[in-house]
Predict the structure.
Amino acid sequence: MRRHRNVKIVATLGPASETYETIRALHEAGADVFRLNMSHGTHEGIREKHAIIRRIEEEMDSPIAILADLQGPKLRVGAFANGEEELEEGATFRLDMDETPGTIDRVCLPHIEIFAALEPGATLLVNDGKIRLKVTECGPDFAQTEVITGGTISDRKGVNVPDVVLPLKALTDKDREDLEFACELGVDWLALSFVQRPEDVVEARDLVKGRAAIMVKIEKPAAVTDFDAILDEVDGIMVARGDLGVELPVQNVPPLQKRMVRKCRAAAKPVIVATQMLESMVSSPMPTRAEVSDVATAIYEGADAIMLSAESAAGDYPIEAVRTMDDVAREVEDDPTYTQIIESSRKAERQSVADGIVAAAREIAETTDIQVICCFTQSGTTALLTARERPRVPIIAMTSLRGTARRLALSWGVNCVMTGPLDRFKHAVISAAKAAREQGYASEDDQIVVTAGVPFNVPGTTNILRVAPCKESLIYSTDPG
């Protein structure tokens, strides 16, 4: 299914979008990637959604990426005797390991790892940052705090600890079970929550064993600090602005988003901008102007994908939300300013033959009458490098590996086409020309750029570029050997 835009759309599935009819409608409306949230639902329910997506993929002959999002550690207070209490600014409040129901003075915090990391002066945030506590005294099983910002605290509200790196692994026992289930099921991407250090990614990669690409959700200040090292270890990044905006001052998030998107682009690794992009469409058929501007900003920055969460998972208008994103994306990418911004922010990375080949392909396509760049890829690396160039013409990634095609469905501007095994470059050119014609990217009178690696089927060998006619008879007549 050809999209008339480059940025990809990720739609989260949930109670509002779990039937075959709705999921197919979401894909037809513009969803390129489906996110399965492992925090909710059962393995059987996730298995059913996975089967539906694969059925739609086969029916529409359109590679679809599936992203399984692991829950990660959830830090929460215990229950209150009255269900909730109102904390006043300036009051004292104690957090401890006592499982007795909470009162106006204290509550259980059943996470001894937090107490082990706390120091006087540290900040604790409760209920998405609505309540702010400052630690005045602490020990191995308690923290005495002063209420800096008061409010209603109730049963099992979440706790954030922005000031310290917690001695917690990103993978809980539940995450390990979910990871193995998702890999066996055959998802294409795994998103890791609560990552604080590169070692968290290394642990996950050892468990994944190459069965899925790994994406890290940047939602902890520690991950921001160690972003470059984390980026080196992962296949993709999600800018998870929800928790990031709780643990950091909200005004810090936009510049961080811009910097992370640019670093991911330079590294040729897909980046998703996520959280509350069209939040009002959970209950409204129309987004706010500010939300539309937020989506547009991520597209102008050159993000590979933009994501819907509750809007498509639990909202009243999931299909309309996807259509709105598609409409905004097409309008932005038609804006001449978009091209200027994307090209001015292009960062040259010329460290290998493959880098030079894809850069040359982009320059040839943009300075001559070339309709499309076709790249043959096994691992997906050539397509990712081509996407990093952000060319003005479409990219067709030709691969014989279904898993590679699915993973690339997340990458900017990449349109995946399955091809049979090839052993000669001339056959590759013929296959590329045929795909360009059949997919509507070029006619018989047009020319295309083809890149590949010789010998074939060896990852990382991109070393050849050819400008070729789309007409098969001309390919034969102009082929040198």
